[in-house]
């Protein structure tokens, strides 16, 4: 490879990835604003934490090879839609729906694809809501639109996915069936935990609003 050519290609790639970094910064600010507004109105915070990452060039190359798409910047921009990823962890499953709705109604966020692995979990037990959004990015000399993948999950879903990712997800070789079955069973345990926590949360909310109503009635008397 001609060293000058290599230097130019590297520069082009780094500039390309910079657009994704900017898109993530913008989205994180929007999510923070939504969170604060929601907290102000409902006195409740549906978001536990937000994490983001830009795929490494090696990981992008692996995906390009897997998908068999052309190795050009335009093709990568169009075909690899999770170069920038934002993961939002919520407390309860109902918070995921609240956040999803807030993003749908947000004029600035253009959701162009959804994969609902909560309504339809993957065979291995993976649960999460995936949204692909299109974000405008303003570079010094042009405006670009880049895709960002937003994954929204509960703490229990995140706990399972993080550990499953470590144990197995990217291991391409054959894994004994009993390990696959055990992982699927642990996903079900995490799901039951989510359901139980949601039920407790609903019950406590009901008790709180009954108390509030009683206190208000006493003040009027
Ligand atoms: P990493 O290392 O987390 O970035 P597509 O992107 O549409 O061509 P794909 O990759 O099947 O096809 O998309 P999908 O289903 O939306 O999944 C993308 C991401 O979701 C993955 O990114 C993981 O982060 C997560 N994910 C999906 N399935 C699983 C799973 O079974 N277990 C775990 N732990 N995570 C999962 P990457 O790039 O594969 O990995």
Automatic annotation (TrEMBL):
CDD domains assigned to the protein according to its UniProt record, in alphabetical order: NT_Rel-Spo_like (cd05399)
Metabolic or biological pathway: Purine metabolism; ppGpp biosynthesis; ppGpp from GTP: step 1/2
A Pfam family the protein falls into: RelA_SpoT
RelA/SpoT domain residues: 52-175
InterPro entries to which the protein is assigned, alphabetical: GTP_Pyrophosphokinase (IPR052366), NT_sf (IPR043519), RelA_SpoT (IPR007685)
Entry protein name: GTP pyrophosphokinase YwaC
Species of the source: Amphibacillus indicireducens
